[in-house]
Amino acid sequence: MTVEAEAPHSQAPGQKPSVSIVMPCLNEKETVEICVRKALSWLERSETPGEVLVVDNGSTDGSPELAAAAGARVVFEPVKGYGSALRRGFLEAKGDWMVMGDCDDTYEFADLDPLMAPLFEGADMSIGNRHAGGIAPGAMTWSHRYIGTPAISFLLRVFTGLKVGDSQCGLRAFTRGALERMELKTDGMELASEMILKSARRGLNVAEVPVPYNIRLGEAKLNTFRDGWRHLRFLMLASPNWMFTIPGLILTIAGIVILGASLPNDRIAIGDFSWQPVFAGSIFTIVGFNALMLGIASRLYTSARGITNEDAFVRFYNRYLSLEVFVVAGLALIGLGVVLDAILLITDSAADNFTLAAIAQTLIVIGANAGLVGALASLLEDGN
Asked: How large is the average pLDDT for residues 24-51?
């Protein structure tokens, strides 16, 4: 049984939007037929024009044939990965709206009404919440339920401000317009996080609804450490302010304060020991300044690729900053450091002004780094 989808954006006023239910598949012979039939039954019962699209990602157990026999349209994606399969499905889908969900029978495709309701009310995307909908005993490992998913959801709330309680739920519905605005690019399980991060940064209206989560049949494809790291890596690289700028600013300020406090006295006595804080001050300042410079370069990179929005800082850089500005600033810092070194050399007072000597070397190092990172930023800018 198939229910054909209309071409995108072709529904008449008052007609239900057509829906493509996209299922990534890798060796799911135990459940793919069940999921396809449930999804088709929902389309028929709800009188929704649509299709079930199974994206095979290299199955060797006959899953594609079983899916086709059950009534699905089957397409193939040779590049391995959850994200790759889904993005292929979205590209091939004919529906005005789309539903994504795993074909391991953990999600209830026979009743998608609660998931679709927010879209009828104007939401751009609807995400399931398994914790609110009920997780069957044994359906989710304790590490995923109490550590992995809550940790990633917390980071997404911090980075985006979007309050999503179950960021890793694989059952979602969204409009074609929302899909186009998200511009998804990742190949792995981190696609789930990419969708939330980009929907928040592009101002999409996201709703969350309770959905039940059942025990899967067949072999689980999720690798706790590999996929967890992919999520964390994506989130950190997609949030350069948290990765570079904020830590860099904190370290730079701390380094400058420590160097300033070291000027009256190169050493601080702590009982029978003495500490030269100038070393920590120089290290903090150099590392912090480098992080700030890398933050600039990474913001240009992520903005050019649609990962972060173009904000006031990026516009300021494009208008006022360039390789030449960074080079001039770097040369000025290097020059100031050389002048301080020269004064200490001429007055033969380096031994008595150890902190000033350290400040001079610090200025030379961060000046050189300013020029190098300026060149990197210009390369990224020219490569857009």
From this structure: 95
In whole angstroms, what is the distance from residue 185 CA to residue 300 CA?
Answer: 18
273 — pLDDT class (breaks 50, 70, 90): low
The string over 212-230, giving b where at least 16 C-beta atoms fall within 10 Å of a residue's C-beta and e elsewhere, is bbbebebeebbeeeebbeb
Query: Any idea what DSSP says for residue 17?
Result: P
Characterize the bridge pairing of strands 273-275 and 206-210.
unpaired
Under 8 Å between Cβ of 90 and 184: yes
Residue 5 has pLDDT above 60, yes or no: no
Residue 42: closest CA among 33, 52, 32 = 52
The pLDDT value given to residue 54? 97
Q: Given CA atoms 211, 216, 220, 224 in this order, what sign does their dihedral have?
A: positive
Task: Name residues whose C-beta falls within 8 Å of residue 208's C-beta, 6 or more positions apart in sequence.
Answer: 126, 127, 128, 129, 132, 164, 165, 166
The pLDDT value given to residue 351: 57
CA distance 358 to 291: 20
Q: Which of 142, 123, 166, 144 is nearest to 228 (CA)?
A: 144
Cα 311 from Cα 298, distance rounded (Å): 13
Q: Do 5 and 51 form a contact (C-beta atoms < 8 A)?
A: yes
Q: What is the pTM of this model?
A: 0.72
Q: pLDDT band for position 356 (50/70/90)?
A: confident
Q: Which structure tokens are listed for 11?
A: 């529904």
- The Cα–Cα gap between 129 and 211 comes to 6
Tell me the CA distances in angstroms from 321 to 101, 286, 305, 318, 330, one per residue in order: 45, 21, 20, 6, 13
CA-to-CA distance for 207 and 114, rounded, in angstroms?
A: 11
The token pair at 102 is: 């795993």
Under DSSP, the state recorded for 12 is P
For residue 286, give the amino acid letter. I
CA 55 to CA 327: how far, in whole Å?
Answer: 51
